[in-house]
Structures are given as structure tokens and as C-alpha cells.
Amino acid sequence: MTIKRILPAGLVALLLLLSACSTASDGDKIATAVAQTVAAQETLNARSTPTPIPPTLTPTATAGTPTATATIPPTKPPSTGASACASAAWLGDTPPDGKIMKPGEQFWKTWTIRNSSSCTWNTSYQIIYWDGDLMGGATYYNFPQTVLPGNSVEVPLLLTAPEADGQYVSEWKFKTPDGVTFGVGEYGAPITAVIEVSSDENPDYGIVSVEYDVTRDPLYGCPANVWYTITARVTTNGPLEFSYYWAQWDGNDSNPKTMEVKQAGVTTLTRQDARGLATNPGEKWMQLVFTDPKFPTTKAIYYHTCNQ
């Protein structure tokens, strides 16, 4: 039995007892007191009884009846201002990755970066340490100057080669004033400083990499002669003299040549091929072959001549 049922019964019994023992005037007073007590009790019951919460119903659409949908407060879209500024392209670096250094040697690593965003970069932008060996640098630096969209900037850092022999990699990225971190290219890759530390008095300098490009003049059509220029970028990790020749698809190889470079860097070598509409159209190739010092034969660069 609940409290709500006990109290009215007790009040009725009390009323009967008092009515039997009192006068008429006293009865009026008693009736009034009881009425007030009952009212107070009803108020108490009303307060202690929870208000039922109607169940949330999901309306079901019927043919010809519009479906009721809940009203959801609009969500503010994420700001694209900062991320729109976080876009860069790598154009080159000096010295190239792979340079041989003496233990403890200080050097300037300079990256050439293009602002490929729609924002103007200022000196509030930063280059920040990302991963690898810090090489004695700070964890962040401010941009050296303001860079308009589409323009490029040289970002130099003074680094120090570690004392122990071995290969070391230092990775860096950029940060907007809003705190958005970004790298270069489509995937936001970090820029790198890669060195080889050697305590040897006569390090074994050599060729680190070879990359090709091909251009066509004119760009379109098949006139009597079309010139194809093949460019090879040869990266060396120190002062070096090397011998090479160009090999090509028809056996018309170039004469052997010797190139001397004074320091680590990129050496550009070129060769041209002229093709006419009727002279062996289709796929052609060229490649560099190094004879001294030996370097693995590079992959050929392929190009298509007129086949109309």
C-alpha cells in the first residue's frame, strides 16, 4: 500500500472521531482544518508524482503523406581558410641528398619551395622539425620572407653533421599561423636533408641518382622535323670525374665523354633526336651508360614520335 492511499483513510478516521466529541462550532473549525490538510496533501502528492515523458515516435511515411523529419540545428562547416594556405611544391635543394660530410661538419641545406596555395605566406609561417635526426638545428624557424601565391622562396637551414659515421635523414614540414602542418606535393611529403657521414680521408664519391625529362618542339603536330630533347640530371655526392655515353634505340650511340664536377650537386646532360613524319614513327628510347666509375645502368626514357 502506498503513502498516497494511507493518508486519506487516516484523515477520514480522524474526522469522524473529532465530530463525535465536538460541538457544532468546533465541527466547523475541524472541517476547515481537515480541508486545508487534504489540500496540502494533494499538493505534496502532485509534487512527488513524476510527469510522464511522451515517447519519441518515428513517423512512418504512407503513400501520399509527407514524412515528418526532425529539425537538427545547422552545423558550422569546418573552416577552409587555413587549409587553403597549406599547399607547397618542391622545386629543388642544395646540396642534394646523399652528400658525403665529415663528422661534425656544418653545412647549409637550402630547399627551393613554391607557394602553390591561394594565400600569401609571411614570416609568421614556420618550417618545423618533423622526424629523423635534428642535426643540431632548432625545432622550428620562421619563414625568411613573404611569398606571394605562385612564387618561390629559398628556405635555408644551418645544420651540423653527426660525429659518428653513417647515413642520416632529417625531415621537415611547414606550419601556418593557424597551426595547420603541411608538406610538399599531393601527399604533403616532408622535405629532407640526407647526408652520409664519413671519417675516411678519401671517401668513395660517386653518382647518387639519375633522372630524365623529355621535351618536344613543336609541342603538337607532325611537321617535316620534330626535335626531341632528352635531359638527364645526374646527382653526385661529392667532387667526381665520370665517363659516360648516350645509348639509343637505333644503335646510334654517342661518343664517350668525361665530366668533372667540383662538389656534390646536380649535373645536367642533354641529347637531341630529330624525327620526321616518315622516319621510323612510334616509340623510341634513350639512356645514359656510365663507364667510370661504374654505376648501374639507368632506366631508359621513352618518347613517341609522329605516327600519323
Key features of this structure:
308 residues; alpha+beta; 3 domains; four-stranded antiparallel β-sheet; 3 helices; Immunoglobulin-like
Question: What would you say this structure looks like, in words?
Answer:
With 308 residues, the protein is of the alpha+beta class. It has three domains: 3-46; 84-197, Sandwich (Immunoglobulin-like); 207-305, Immunoglobulin-like (Sandwich). It has helices at 3-21, 24-48, 81-84, and strands at 88-94, 99-101, 106-115, 126-132, 140-142, 152-160, 166-175, 181-182, 191-197, 207-217, 226-236, 240-248, 257-261, 265-275, 282-292, 301-305. The strands form four sheets. Strands 2, 4, 5, 7, 8 and 9 form a six-stranded mixed beta sheet that branches.
What CATH architecture of the largest domain do you see? Sandwich
- Number of structurally distinct domains: 3
CATH topology of the largest domain: Immunoglobulin-like
What is the residue-averaged pLDDT? 79
What coarse outline follows from CA principal-axis ratios? Answer: flat
Percent in helix: 10-25%
Fourth CATH level, the homologous superfamily of the largest domain: Immunoglobulins
Kindly provide the radius of gyration, computed on alpha-carbon positions and rounded to a whole number of angstroms: 42 Å
Describe the biggest sheet?
Answer: 6 strands, mixed
The chain-level structural class is alpha+beta
The helix-strand sequence is HHHEEEEEEEEEEEEEEEE
Distance from first to last alpha carbon: 102 Å
